Amino acid sequence: MEFEGYLIKSAAGIFPHELMKLESYKSTPNQREEIEAYRDDYTRDLTRITASGTKSMIEFATIDDLTLTQKKEIQSFFNNVMSDELQRKVKLTFWNDEDNAYYTKDFYIPDIEYNINRIKGNNIYYNSLTYKLVEY
């Protein structure tokens, strides 16, 4: 499948790129996991037993000076497709740069640190927020 102009999509729609610092977007697709790895005592040759499945991780930062309304828009994007609120489990379609294809997988969202820049009137302005998406 060719690139269709988005990085992350859910059943609720496409993540708004204008709220993301595109240069901060990092994906680590198809991560390998070692079940066991060791070196031979004499030859020092490496032996690896690698799990057959792979998992992906995505990380990005929001724009600076994110408003309360914009933060709520991002939260709604994820909350609208959250299947388990306690685990913050979401089903997302993402662009996999290693395979140059889209995949739909379940991710969890680790805790997010909210860093307020300033308050002006009835609005809160946030410093850039970092979102991580870790595949189940």
How would you briefly describe this protein structure?
By secondary structure, this protein is mainly beta. 9% of the residues lie in helices and 53% in strands. It is elongated.
* H-E string: EEEEEEEHEEEEEE
**Helix count from the secondary structure assignment:** 1
| Amount of beta strand | over 45%
Query: What oligomeric state do the depicted chains represent?
Result: single chain
Task: Please tell me what the overall shape is.
Answer: elongated
The helix content, as a percent range, equals under 10%
Describe, in plain words, how this protein is organized in 3D.
The chain is 9% helix and 53% strand. The protein has 136 residues and is mainly β. The strands form three sheets. Strands 1, 2, 3, 6, 8, 9, 10 and 13 form an eight-stranded antiparallel β-sheet that branches. A three-stranded antiparallel β-sheet has the order 7-12-11. Strands 4-5 form a two-stranded antiparallel ribbon. A hairpin with a 4-residue loop joins strand 9 and strand 10. The two termini are 23 Å apart. The relative contact order is 0.24. The model has no long low-confidence stretch (mean pLDDT 96).
